[in-house]
């Protein structure tokens, strides 16, 4: 599990504690915290049962890439420091052990709004992203379709999710585990901002994965909806 963070505070400690409660403290669940080098010494005094990765560049996607490069596990999961892993997340770990899917999607409890479905759909992801707190990726999937593009400010994960869900060659394919397994704070920047780089590349992505005519229909529908 990879947690990008700027500093160690009560929210980060709460997130780490929730991971340990849901997943245990054993070697099966590696917890990596990616943060500025100058903040690591202070964080070590506050947090146990985790490893630290010094970020090499600023930015959320740069930190996620640093965590991806440092992680040793077969599966990778990204979570914000103000999010909480719920006890039913243990069911996701069971699916990973028993079925070895290319990815696992689950529902997320979104702030005070309610449950945000994570049922994977190749067509839905073309129009709307999934909450990445509800996705566990295989290393194979991210090594093939990553790293996250740092020039994208808020939708590099959307770009990766499109490629992952449209890749039929990835092992056993995605699995869906229904029910909220994570509480997402709803305060992430990507939830309230759009990415101009992503939308410049969007027509190219559509033509590649769905063909020229279907691409035209999808892009037209977005324009009608005011996007």
Automatic annotation (TrEMBL):
<dbReference type="InterPro" id="IPR001173">
    <property type="entry name" value="Glyco_trans_2-like"/>
</dbReference>
<dbReference type="InterPro" id="IPR029044">
    <property type="entry name" value="Nucleotide-diphossugar_trans"/>
</dbReference>
<protein>
    <recommendedName>
        <fullName>Glycosyltransferase 2-like domain-containing protein</fullName>
    </recommendedName>
</protein>
<feature type="domain" description="Glycosyltransferase 2-like">
    <location>
        <begin position="2"/>
        <end position="124"/>
    </location>
</feature>
<dbReference type="Pfam" id="PF00535">
    <property type="entry name" value="Glycos_transf_2"/>
</dbReference>
């Amino acid at each position: 599990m990879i947690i990008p963070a700027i500093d160690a505070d009560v929210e980060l400690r709460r997130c780490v504690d929730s991971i340990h409660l849901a997943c245990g403290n054993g070697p099966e669940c590696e917890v990596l915290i990616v943060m500025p080098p100058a903040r690591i010494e202070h964080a070590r005094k506050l947090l146990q049962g985790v490893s630290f990765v010094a970020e090499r560049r600023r930015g959320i996607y740069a930190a996620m890439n640093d965590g991806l490069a440092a992680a040793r596990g077969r599966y990778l999961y990204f979570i914000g420091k103000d999010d909480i892993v719920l006890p039913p997340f243990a069911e996701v770990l069971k699916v990973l052990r028993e079925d070895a899917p290319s990815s696992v999607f689950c529902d997320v409890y979104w702030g005070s709004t309610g449950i945000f479905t994570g049922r994977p759909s190749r067509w839905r992801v073309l129009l709307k992203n999934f909450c990445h707190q509800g996705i566990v990726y295989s290393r194979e999937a991210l090594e093939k379709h990553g790293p996250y593009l740092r020039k994208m400010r808020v939708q590099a994960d959307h770009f990766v999710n499109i490629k992952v869900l449209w890749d039929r060659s990835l092992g056993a394919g995605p699995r869906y585990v229904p029910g909220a397994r994570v509480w997402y704070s709803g305060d992430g920047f990507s939830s309230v901002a759009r990415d101009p780089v992503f939308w410049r590349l969007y027509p190219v992505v559509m033509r590649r994965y769905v063909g020229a005519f279907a691409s035209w229909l999808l892009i037209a529908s977005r324009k009608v909806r005011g996007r």
